[in-house]
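Hello,

I think I submitted the S-adenosylmethionine job twice by accident. Can you confirm which output corresponds to this input? Input:
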Amino acid sequence: MVLPGPRARGLVAAARAAQGRRVGSAEGSPRGDPASRRAALYVHWPYCEKRCSYCNFNKYVARGGVDEAALRRCLVTEAHTLLALGGVHRVDSVFFGGGTPSLASPHTVAALLEAVAQVAHLPADSEVTLEVNPTSAPGSRLAEFGAAGVNRLSIGLQSLDDAELQLLGRTHSARDALRTLAAARRLFPGRVSVDLMLGLPGQQLGPWLGQLRELLRHCDDHLSLYQLSLERGTALFAQVQRGAVPAPDPELAAEMYAEGRALLRTAGFRQYEVSNFARRGALSTHNWTYWQCGQYLGVGPGAHGRFVPHGAGCHTREARIQTLEPDNWMREVIQFGHGTRKRVPLDELELLEEVLAMGLRTDVGITHQHWRQFESQLTLWDVFGASEEVKRLQEQGLLLLDHRGLRCSWEGLAVLDSLLLTLLPRLQEVWWQRSPPPVPGG
Ligand SMILES: C[S@@+](CC[C@H](N)C(=O)[O-])C[C@H]1O[C@@H](n2cnc3c(N)ncnc32)[C@H](O)[C@@H]1O
Ligand SMILES: C[S@@+](CC[C@H](N)C(=O)[O-])C[C@H]1O[C@@H](n2cnc3c(N)ncnc32)[C@H](O)[C@@H]1O
Ligand code: SF4
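Support: Only one job matched these inputs. Its output is below.
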């Protein structure tokens, strides 16, 4: 999952820090506008049964067991604190991610949803996703999660090849994955997603496409393709370093991605985001909120949030990260009502950079109307219309700027990172031309 990261910030942060620029009202909607009182909610369950060889997400294996009642109390407390702080009246979606949230008890999921509904409007048709790791006996437990209020499942299937699953350190077989998928589809028809990885060490194009074809015979209406990112500090990274396993080949991974998205298109899936594919309208509304730079609260160890803390008298959106380590996080929640470790106010330009980088990940891109919600003076035409480099990207068929807005073409979506190398500096340049920073000592 790509959440807005520190990358875009780094491009401009140093200059701004030196110039002491005003942190303005970075929120698109004026205060009191219902949009500023809506948010998505992410809940992080930090525990896993076992550490996968490739994963560097915030997850822990609890040797002495988990005190789930205590963890649940803290998650509920933090949810209440952050909903109040954000002045959130309506929660449009809830996502239980991790870690392995399918290891939590359905009671914990129900308690969180009840806690939200006590203080905010949680519409009956809100998307409530739970990430599920495949197991050999999935049925009854999945039904209990449904009874607790979950209405969408995202299954971490990863691969349909047992040798690859072993390399990844997964606890399940391909058979378990298909069994879990079938049980999930029976219980949540039209609302099941699967994650499939590509670019694994030693993986070849033909067999991987074979897996994807097989998956198409079993899957529901949503699929995510994730290219392996080899992360320092993981077991797989060490194996590659010492030559025990071949290094992943980025060119081959790009080929897999290109062939995979073409295959999914033929099968009737809309690629609505760089890594995400849906048919029959089964787009994830929670993840859509991230790409549209909507507000979201992050509850639980290491969760990220982006919202305006109205309750603290602020008018500016903040990027927030909760304390990573679960025991420390719990101590902070017990003491302060929340475990927020880092708060970074986003200034106007930083928010626009996120609107650009996140919005272009989707097939609709950034509409003029969407842009206006965040920036009322500079239009997309003002920023990009006169740029020779942007014109060149349009001539190359990678980018479109028209009456609808700015978006990637089908070809452009596959090379978005390289487009942003042109687009982000252009936005910064036009921004600074309009409001030059004060000259130090001037
Ligand atoms: C990789 S994405 C998979 C989404 C899935 N393909 C789907 O369609 O729903 C989900 C993962 O991203 C991370 N994540 C998502 N939102 C987050 C947030 N607000 N804070 C921290 N981590 C988050 C969590 O590790 C979560 O397990
Ligand atoms: C953090 S996991 C959480 C969900 C669940 N525990 C699982 O493993 O399926 C969410 C997704 O992130 C993706 N992911 C984790 N580490 C990754 C990596 N190093 N490179 C690419 N994708 C990764 C996997 O596809 C996984 O399905
Ligand atoms: S990939 Fe999922 S199950 Fe594996 S360690 Fe990471 S969070 Fe846990």
